[in-house]
Each structure stands twice: as structure tokens, then as C-alpha cells.
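Sequence only, no structure available. Ideas?
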Amino acid sequence: MEFRQLVYFRTILQAGSFTKAAKQLHMAQPPLSRQISQLEAELDVQLLNRRSTGVTPTDAGTLLFNYAEQLIVLRDQADHQVRFLGTAVSGKLRVGLISSAAGVLPSGLSSMTTHYPDIQLLITEGHTYQLVDQLSKRQLDAAIVRTPFSATGMQEKPLRAERMTAVVPKKYEHDLPAHLSIKDLADLPLIVYRRFRSIFAQTFYQAQINPFIASYCDDARTAVQLANARLGVALVPESVGLAYLGIGMTVHPINYAGWRTQVKLIWPKSQAESPLLKLFVSQFYD
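Reply:
I predicted one. C-alpha cells follow.
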């Protein structure tokens, strides 16, 4: 099995046909077909269902596609790490960012590309669990994420601690105090950012409160947008609440230490740090 065959195979499935894949690979279709036939013969298994409407993977093809994806990522990672482990500060740095990361990015980052014109920052946006998973698979070099999360083998730099807040539509204001306690939430319809679900549930249980959960969602920004639409009160980190606050809405900090969250920069311990990664991390230290 040759590496180029895996690249050809993946491209065919991504394109959906031999014809489209051949165009993407800048090669003729017959030699592409021969390469895949040779791969099937070598493995002694059919990898593709060939139909007039295109190609789909067999069960064996699906398995090989998943392995091909991992191997191609690892090849690119090896090339990236080895090529730039020298003394030159150059190359591409793959950085993951959560939606509320903008406020913690150091001003020094803007000068990196000025002083080092061969640098390119490749930004991937996602939620914390997605970014931690990509870091563990070496698809990212570093990421800015939010606690709580579970990750082993990571170095970390705390960037900002935040309190949880309630984004409140005017119709739910009543006589709410400027700063809320857990008990102040008991009679409000709550919109919960799903990754804090277990923490909130445990707190409410200990306080003997059974609040009405109007909605769960997978993005803190969505929670604020639902609150802006007057569907309930969103419980989100303060920076997110302030950044996406709508007209006629108010933000009430919640006085409960157990709901504080931290934004952190993390990167793998086991990964050899290139000069570029070291330079990037250094921007977050005074």
C-alpha cells in the first residue's frame, strides 16, 4: 500500500466520483482507476461501490477512509514539526479558539507577522471539547479553551477568570437585585449552555431548588441569542453575555464561586515545541 494511493482513495470519496477526483488531483482518470484497482487487489477486498451516479465506500472502504484520514493528518503534522524545529521562526501555527477568546488575545500577536513575515496563523473556531480533541489528535498546535474540561498531557497558561452571569430580558426583571444568588434563579425560565449542565444541576440540587429549564443549547452565544428573543434567562460566562447582549437586556452577575470559569491557553506537553510555538506562547506572558 502506497501513501499516494491513500491520498487518491480519500480524494475520490470526498469528491464523490473518479472524474471529479481526477480533476482535483490534476491527473487523468484511467491511471487513477488503476491505482485504486491495484489497492483493492493488494488488500484483497472491494473498497468502493461504483455506480453511474458516483462512488460510495463499502464497509472496508469506510474503515480504510478513517485510517487514511489519520495517516494523512499525521504525515502533515510530521512535516510541519520537523520542518520548523530548527532555529527559524517561520511556518504555519494551527491555533484553536473558543468564541469568547477575543478578549484574551495579547496585543503582541499583531506584531508577530510584522517582525516574522514567514509566519502564518491558521485559526480553527470551535467549542472547548472539539478543540481539546483536535489537540490530542495533533491537528492543532495550541488552543484557547474554557474550563471545565478534561484533558491529559497538556501544558496550560490561565488567561482570565470569569464569573457566570444571567442575561435577563426586561419581562423577567421584576425586582431582581443587581447581583444574583442561586436562589434568585429559582423562579426564572433558564436557558442553559449544555457543557455547564451537570455543574448547574448539582448546585440546584444542593440548594434544594428545582428550576424550570426552558432550553439547553450547545453554544453560549446561542443561549444569549435565545435570551435576546425573550425565551428565557441565559446562564453564560460574563464575556459572552456582554459581547452578544441585545437591546433591552441586562446582565446580572451571579454571586456563586462554584460557577466561576477560566479561559486557558493549552498545548501538548509531549509535542516538541517549534520556535514558532514558543514565540506564540511567550506572547501570553508579561
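The CA atoms of residues 20 and 26 lie 10 Å apart.
Hope that gets you unstuck.
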